[in-house]
Structure formats: C-alpha cells, structure tokens
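check this:
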Amino acid sequence: MKKAYAVASLALVIAAGGGVAAQAKTETCEPISKAQVENLFNDFNKAWATKDSQTVTALFAKEPLLLPTLSNKPRSTPDEVKDYFDHFLKNSPSARIDTSTIEIDCHTASNVGTWTISLTDPATGKQSEVKGRYSFIYRFEDGQWKIDHLHSSLMPEK
C-alpha cells in the first residue's frame, strides 16, 4: 500500500494590519519510486505498440507540452498531442532507454537521458534506428502519474 508523505513549507504573508506573519503549510505528496518512474516509460512504449493515438494521448496531463522529434510544432493540448501521434505511430515506433537519470519531487518526477527509437517505414517495411535525447516530466494529476512534458530530439552528432 502506498503511503503519502507530507512536506512542510513556510510562507510569509502580509497581515491585515500591515505586518508580516509566517504561515506554515503542509502539503501531502504522492510517493513514487525510481522503478515506478521507469515503469511509466514502459507504459508509454506499450501504448506506442498499440498504434492507437488516443491510448498514447491518455498518458498525458490535461495541459501537456510535447516537443516532438519529427515536428517543429510544439503540441500543448490533448488534441494536438493526438494529432502528432496519429501520424508518428504509422512508423511502428518502439524505444529503448540507453541512459537515464531519474529525479523525484513532491508531485513531479523526471526521466531524462538518451534513447534509441526503432521505426518501420509503412510504405517499404524498411526498418531504421534513430538515436535521440528525451525528457519526460511526470505530474501527479487526478490520482495518476501523467506525462506533463515530453521533449525528444535527434542526437546532433553522428
């Protein structure tokens, strides 16, 4: 069973009489382990395998930011994220993590590093591999860890 933990913070507020007062605030955080963050990537990769853009889009937060590898256009709504994956998933992508650094905070977690994406040209069946960099930022939203931000780019050096 998962157990939430609390983080205390201190805020300075201006009181009605013009003085400054300290006010303590306790925030309940949702715990997640590095293994669970790794599993979020596995879920993403499995969603790609379905070739269903709606399945992939469902992994994103309500207000996502996708900076995709094969498009110059940032995607900042679920409809725009879905539109990107409508086209990208035709290439039967599959990814493997080559290097990874995971950081965990109260309601966010990040997984950044390098990956290799395998693609299949739908017209010819030719397979290729693309080396890239990625940044997944996850946010705990409505009881689930969602992709808040995903940036992927090609490696600049051969």
